[in-house]
Amino acid sequence: MKSSPIVKLLVRRSCAVSNLSFFSLVHNLLPSLLCVIWCFACITASPAQDSAQTPAQSSAQAESKQASEEIATRDEPTTFKVNSKLVVVRAVVRDSQGKAIGTLQQDDFQVFDKGKPQVITQFEVEQPGSLAEKARQVSEKDSSSAAPPEALSATGNAPAAPERFVAYLFDDVHLRFGDLAHVRESAEHHLASLKPTDRAAIFTTSGITTLGFTDDRVKLHDALLHLRPNPISSQSFAHHCPDISYYQADLIINKHDAKAKEDALLEQMECGPKVAGTPGAGDAFIAQGNPVTVLDTLAEAVFSAGDHESRVSLISLKDVVNNVSRMPGQRSIVLVSPGFITPTLEYESADIVDRAVRSQIVINALDARGVYVVLPFGNVEDRVVGPEIRPGESDTTTAVAAASAQSDLLMMLTADTGGIFFHNNNDFDEGFRRVSETPEYTYFLAFVPQNLKLDGSFHTLKVTLKNQPKLNLQARRGYYAPKTFADPNEQAKQEIEEAMYSQEELHSLPVQLHTQFYKAGDDDAKLTVLAHVDLQHLHFRKVEGRNSNVLTCVSALFNRNGNFVQGTEKVVTMNLKDDTLQRRLASGITVKTSFDVKPGDYLIRLVVRDSEGQSMAAENGAVEIR
């Protein structure tokens, strides 16, 4: 047996005093001997003491071990099963006076996909202003509940949460200076009258001017002052000959319209040689050679420039939709533009509509041209020609068609998302008032298309009302089929993310949200979000005698302007025995998430989803930490 250091020390000490008397030896060694006895007692008793636990302690440890084996929480993503593509249709129904109504039921609607009736699998009615009210109710409920003595400041008051988020997108790529000056002045009048619960943001299609969501009037005013026309490439052909628009270039290049080409050739023959030497890139096309070749080269260059500007504007609109989709409230976009055509970008346009509808975003549009008149002799801002040059009747017809086509995209975006298109009117003050409003009621209809082919084809949609002839219905006109289905895991993550940034409350799962905060100091606080999940309505799958399911709980914080602050995702894996499941059905489970925050006003968004039933719950809360 190996001696301990304490024993060796005592042995050395005893040898050193061996010449002393017996009583002296005992007297000197007695304290050390007592120390040795005490040490050995501690060494030998410790294992026995650990093993000799009370029955209650042993039972508690066993239950804790069993619970850890049956319920595990981790901070990593899980796998969901997504088997189909859900098509969401946003519909607004108005009476003869233009007032939106919200009393219709699911059975009042019919949806047709390529003429075939569809089964509506999801139906929701949205009403503005519900987010802040429900958030206040959650906070007031928490405030009225009993708090532990050590948490005297555990609950806070609900702040005046922002309810509406409106993004103003100015199409400075296509806007002319005169039109921009008029709409900018009216926009300033409008933004000066925002409500305390409104948040506004300013974006431009060029990306040069950007201001995130705020209620600061000074910042909004300054952003408006910085708005300028920012054409990208079309200015290179401002004074070319012949004067071909993007619309006419599309007719020549893609539609092979013989009449459009003939009109351009006639104009080229009249004006081409007479404007040789005109400053600008157009000089390159006033060259000797085959007129048809010269015209084709010019048309391709004009189309390429126009296509690039339209693509940039659509990309900017898509970015704004994605930005607005992360705002926790009533969301809309006001597109201020003279309009533009997208002859080769129909799929991209439909994708924007789909994203907006799924995110419950209304796109409104204001035609910055006001009452638009096509001048019979052209626009002086576009042409530098002599008085003897006069466009013919065909030129005017093409210009009228081009001006009308510019409105098509704005009309489609607003109609398909339940928005308002303000056009052919110079009262921009009234225009901004109307396009900034949101419908009092909006219906969301969803269906799963049967035997959907992944061919990217366009599916026409028709939504009708049963026995409601006096009501006016506005809904999207179609969608493009996907070319590939998204990865199931990525699709599930996207659905959770969309729900987290949405304003809508979902109750497919019985979940209760509670909040508390503890102030550690004047500048620091610990905010706790508690999600209590009732398991009685969950579906469990039997795996090796256990009841299995996975819950993903996402808690997110937003500041007073609705900007995302931080979020946490917790994954709860359940493999419950039958007796444990019975107990849990009565008590449920609680998932706790904590955040380190600074004093301020916060909106809270809780999303819970289970993997087996693919059901989802979403709750809103608000807290004021002072």
Element layout with pairings:
Layout: H1 5-16, H2 22-51, H3 55-70, E1 71-74, E2 87-94, E3 109-113, E4 116-118, E5 120-126, H4 130-144, E6 164-170, H5 177-191, E7 198-204, E8 210-214, H6 217-225, H7 246-253, H8 258-271, H9 291-324, E9 330-337, H10 346-358, E10 361-367, H11 393-417, E11 421-422, H12 428-435, E12 442-447, E13 458-465, E14 472-475, E15 478-480, H13 488-501, E16 506-507, E17 511-519, E18 525-533, E19 541-543, E20 546-558, E21 564-576, H14 578-587, E22 589-597, E23 600-610, E24 616-625
Helix pairs in contact: 1-2, 5-6, 5-12, 7-9, 9-10, 10-11
What does it look like?
By secondary structure, the chain is an alpha+beta fold. The chain has four domains: 1-46; 87-128 and 440-480, Immunoglobulin-like (Sandwich), CATH 2.60.40; 164-233 and 303-429, 3-Layer(aba) Sandwich (Rossmann fold), CATH 3.40.50.410; 495-625, C2 domain (Immunoglobulin-like, Sandwich), CATH 2.60.40. 36% of the residues lie in helices and 26% in strands. The chain has 14 helices and 24 strands. The strands form five sheets. Strands 1, 16, 19, 20, 21, 23 and 24 form a seven-stranded antiparallel β-sheet that branches. It has a six-stranded mixed β-sheet with strand order 8-7-6-9-10-11, sandwiched between helices. A hairpin with a 2-residue loop joins strand 19 and strand 20 (546-558). The longest helix is centred in the middle third of the chain and has 34 residues, at 291-324. The two termini are 66 Å apart. 34% of the residues are buried.
